[in-house]
Amino acid sequence: MTTNKTVRLAQRPKGPVKPEDFDIREEDLADPGEGEIRVRNAFVSLDPAMRGWMNEGKSYVPPVGIGDVMRGFAAGQVEASRHPGFKEGDTVTGLLGVQNYAISDGKGVSLADTSLAPLQTWVGGLGMPGLTAYFGLLKVAEAKEGDTVVVSAASGAVGQVVGQIANIIGCRSVGIAGGPEKCDFIKSEFGFDAAVDYKAGNLFGDLKTACPDGIDVDFENVGGDIFDTVLAQMNPFGRIAVCGLISMYNATELPPGPKNLRNVLVMRLRMQGFIVFDFIKHNQEAMTALGGWYKDGKLKFKEDIRDGGVEAFPAVLSELYTGGNFGKLILKL
Predict the structure, then answer these.
(1) In the chain, what percentage of residues exceed pLDDT 70?
(2) What is the mean pLDDT of residues 225-242?
(3) Do residue 77 and residue 188 come from a single domain?
(4) Does position 1 have pLDDT exceeding 70, yes or no?
(5) 53: burial class by Cβ within 10 Å (0-12, 13-18, 19+)?
(6) Domain span holding position 243
(7) Residues 176 and 120 in one domain
(8) Average pLDDT, the chain
(9) Is 134 exposed, middle or buried (0-12, 13-18, 19+ CB in 10 A)?
């Protein structure tokens, strides 16, 4: 009999995630009920938000419960269906969890067009990270032609798309990344106008050189010292879209706040946090644009696909918070 291998949360992590924070189980495979589908997951998306989903406390979604399957976006194939909207063999993506098989009522599950892009891309550039980049840059930061746009974690899943959309709409794109390899890559492959290596030891000066006319839009993925440095170089009436703060996700104590917060006042900046689900009614608009740009060759995606199945999840996830990935981190099941 076929079984389902799952990753369940065993305890609330303290600091960086560890293998003992998870319980990997072999379980009976369930059949779909009326109005449900069973999906054989092929790829699981590893996202910075996963660390926050494991914490107790006020947030935009309830935390993953102790003993629950770890929340995560996945892409796979419908193996059995009792749902009118899906048939066996359909390729789909959605919040299906870190497990080999998922039972779903179809809510939040979308068809993945593998004639347009490979299945794994539907948990990357054409999935939640691509939507996040689109909404954050265009709906939250309201980037416009002629703006200088800075994005941190620029070689990551969201950052790489932000820079390319900025170019498409006529902005100057400046990416902040760690190390010369990543910086060279985002310029040569993604077309960033400039790249700043935060590990080189001269972040303020290098960013000033890359943005001689100041910064109009900051797409913030990191926080900490990087955010402080960008904040000091924002132009009057600049816009900051706060997408992530990965530098502090593993902190056991709250780090110091921004030193340059005064610039929000004197530069009359607008800073707004956002979650991709805030714009769900605009998903079709975003997917039409992203899919069109991808088809026309205006969007490229770098994916860092790891083997090892669900057993590898704890180790691979931890690399996301130390810069060990290069591109969109995906676990192949």
Answers:
(1) 100
(2) 97
(3) no
(4) no
(5) middle
(6) 128-277
(7) no
(8) 96
(9) buried
CATH number at residue 260: 3.40.50.720
State the DSSP code for 304. Answer: E
**Amino acid, single-letter form, for residue 154:** A
Same domain, 77 and 186: no
**In the structure, what pLDDT confidence band is assigned to residue 303 with cuts at 50, 70 and 90?**
very high
Separation of alpha carbons 114 and 95, rounded Å: 18
Alpha-carbon gap, residue 263 to 57, rounded angstroms: 30
- Distance, in Å, from the CA atom of 272 to the CA atom of 104, rounded to the nearest integer, reads 33
Q: Which of 277, 293, 323 is the last residue of a domain?
A: 277
Can you tell me the mean pLDDT for 19-36? 96
- Residue 108 is classified by DSSP as T
Here the contacts of 55-61 (C-beta below 8 Å, separation 24 or greater) are 55/12, 55/13, 56/12, 60/275, 60/277
Q: How far apart are CA 104 and CA 130, in angstroms?
A: 23
CATH number, domain at 107? 3.90.180.10
Give the pair of three-digit tokens for residue 62: 């309830």
Whether 187 and 325 map to the same domain: the answer is no
Q: Which residue has the tokens 């048939």?
A: 87
DSSP states of 88-149:
TT-EEEES--SBSEEEE-STT-EE--TTTS-GGGGGTTTSHHHHHHHIIIIIIS---TT-EE
Cβ-in-10-Å burial (0-12, 13-18, 19+) of 130 comes to: buried
C-alpha span between 125 and 130 (Å, rounded) = 4
Which H or E element spans position 32?
none
Residue 71 — pLDDT band, cuts 50, 70, 90?
very high
Residue 254 is given by DSSP the state: P
Residue 252 maps to a domain: yes
Residue whose pair of structure tokens reads 């959309």 in the numeric block: 165
Give the pTM. Answer: 0.93
Instruction: Identify the band that residue 143 occupies on the pLDDT scale cut at 50, 70 and 90.
Output: very high
* 106 and 144 co-located in one domain: no
Residue range 142-163: average pLDDT? 97
